[in-house]
Amino acid sequence: MFETKIIEATDDGMKEAQNEAVACLRRGELVALPTETVYGLAADAFNAEAVAKIFAAKERPEFDPLIVHIASYTDLKTVAEVPEDIADTVKKLANEFWPGPLTIILPKTPAVPDLVTSGLPTVAVRQSGHPIFRGINQALGRPIAAPSANRFGRISPTSASAVMKELGGRIPLIVDAGACGEGVESTIIRIEPREGKKPLFYLHRAGPITKEQLQPFGRVEKVKPGEKLQSPGQLDSHYAPLTPFRLLKSPEDFVPEEGKSYGLLSYKGEEGGEYVRMYDWDSVVSLSPGSGKLAEAATRLFFAMREMDEMGFDEIIAEPVSETGLGVAIMDRLRRASAR
Ligand code: AMP
Ligand code: MG
Fold first, then answer.
1. Mean of the pLDDT values across residues 113-133?
2. 296 exposure class (CB count in 10 Å sphere: 0-12, 13-18, 19+)
3. Residues of the chain with CATH 3.90.870.10
4. By CB neighbour count within 10 A (0-12 exposed, 13-18 middle, 19+ buried), where does 41 fall?
5. How would residue 231 be classed by pLDDT, with cut points 50, 70 and 90?
6. pLDDT surpasses 50 at 232
7. Which class would CATH give 245-337?
8. What pLDDT, in 10s, does the model give residues 268-277?
9. Is the CB of 64 inside a 6 Å radius of any atom of ligand 1?
């Protein structure tokens, strides 16, 4: 058991937060850190004993590999051996999207402990764009393994208080830098080269970098059915509130049961129309009140799911968003939350 400390990485406390976090990581301890996607549970990626603590704290099965974060593009070679036939593509993607929420699956170097990759010959790697995370990654001078800072299968945390609820007492330190900007986990791709054509990008997880943004660099494809095993983290049921949660396909899908309480997770809320009006909901929580902006909805998604989970409904009903751009990642998370 730990007494979990929260340090605020505000202007004054920035240096102190960084120093404490780096000292913790050097000692082989875990620290929860803000990233631009969700809060991550960080360990020195080259320290297998420290990495083992991530699996223990999260109760994460060891067959679910972690993402490794590098401080700069030049550090990529310490964790990945980039094949020559995709080197150019990796460089272009890094140029365009790093630091940022794009994770690339590449062959790993022997320096990456097997525990990090769950024994896979590949490592998932990205460079975080969050200034606090980057500063700590740089100061540590080693890659950081960091999955989302929640217990396995639960909703990813987008604030320090959400991390506290998930992992309080299990880790020594949380660095608080306020709410995460993106709100959903990074996009994950594997690159397959093609002779004389643009490469294929197999989409292992939809995220903030959209298909439309990737398209100029390669052709985005669904993961081959046989390859799904390589990504056991992509389990059908994930990001699940404790309250039963159901994503509707259309308004007709909803048939209320007598005496049950229902909350609606709405896209636009009051002005959104049919889903709000079709039933006398116990409460309506909106992802992007009024305007319906997918970026705002993504940022608020996990926060809203946590909020509704604490409201004590018999069931949370979610309305769908349009599956374009960021909507693909949002619908992916809603589907997983509603799968049991
Ligand atoms: P999290 O860090 O909690 O967002 O989860 C990381 C996810 O990245 C895992 O659940 C996998 O889906 C994916 N991942 C990590 N490493 C690999 C890999 N080597 N191959 C395929 N997918 C991976
Ligand atoms: Mg996760």
1. 97
2. middle
3. 5-176
4. buried
5. very low
6. no
7. alpha beta
8. 987 668 999 9
9. yes
Query: Which CATH number does 5-176 carry?
Result: 3.90.870.10
User: Is ligand 1 within 6 A of the CB of residue 120?
Assistant: yes
The pLDDT of residue 338 is 93
Q: What is the mean pLDDT of residues 37-56?
A: 98
Q: What is the DSSP string of 162-222?
A: HHHHHHTTT-SEEEE--S-SS-SPPEEEEEEEETTEEEEEEEEE--SS-HHHHGGGSEEEE
CA of 105 to the centre of ligand 1 (A): 9
Residue nearest to atom 9 of ligand 1 (CA): 233
Ligand 1 centroid to Cα of residue 205, in Å, is 9
Q: 56: CA distance to ligand 2 center in Å?
A: 14
Q: Which two structure tokens, joined as six digits, stand for 10?
A: 């505000």
Task: Delimit the CATH 3.40.50.11030 region(s) of the chain.
Answer: 245-337
pLDDT of residue 228: 66
Ligand sitting nearest the alpha carbon of 238: 2
Q: What is the per-residue pLDDT for 331?
A: 97
